């Protein structure tokens, strides 16, 4: 199975933020749309990825810094301060097993799908798991039907 097949069974909406937008706005977008990530785009190019992991990391860092002296308010944090620069990406033709290895090796739950220089989607670990499960269920049905209709000798 290839990534393009996973994309057929998922929502195609892409949520994006600009690096200079407020982190709080990106978090609100994520919460309102029940999503775990937004892509960070600048001039139509992918420049980073923002997930709840990066949000928690920057908040923990600010809290630690706050203990040692004054820091700017959390409300002033920019997306660029929290985003993961140069995230792992995939292409539509990548094999899903290879994508799963990439996601595990890079600890990425969300991976942008690139078609050349154009980002076409974001595939999540959940999307991959759902597609693999559906494929396995379909294969099991076919095998069971085949075994049920096994010719007698």
From TrEMBL:
Keyword flag Cytoplasm: no
CBS domain boundaries: 10-65, 83-138
Any Pfam family matching the protein: CBS
Name this polypeptide is given: CBS domain containing protein
Keywords: CBS domain
Coiled coil regions, renumbered to chain: none
UniProt entry tagged with the keyword Cytoplasm: no
InterPro entries: CBS_dom (IPR000644), CBS_dom_sf (IPR046342), Diverse_CBS-Domain (IPR051257)
């Amino acid at each position: 199975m290839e990534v393009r097949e996973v994309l057929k069974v998922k929502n195609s909406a892409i949520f994006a933020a600009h690096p200079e937008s407020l982190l709080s706005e990106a978090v609100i977008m994520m919460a309102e749309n029940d999503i775990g990530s937004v892509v960070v785009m600048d001039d139509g190019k992918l420049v980073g990825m923002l997930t709840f992991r990066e949000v928690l990391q920057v908040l923990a860092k600010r809290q630690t810094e706050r203990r040692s002296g004054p820091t700017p308010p959390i409300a002033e944090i920019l997306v660029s301060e929290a985003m993961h620069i140069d995230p792992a990406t995939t292409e539509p033709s990548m094999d899903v097993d290879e994508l799963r290895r990439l996601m595990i090796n890079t600890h990425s739950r969300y991976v942008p799908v690139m078609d050349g220089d154009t980002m076409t989607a974001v595939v999540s670990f959940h999307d991959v798991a759902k597609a693999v499960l559906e494929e396995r269920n379909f294969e099991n049905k076919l095998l069971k039907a085949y075994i049920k209709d096994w010719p007698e000798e």
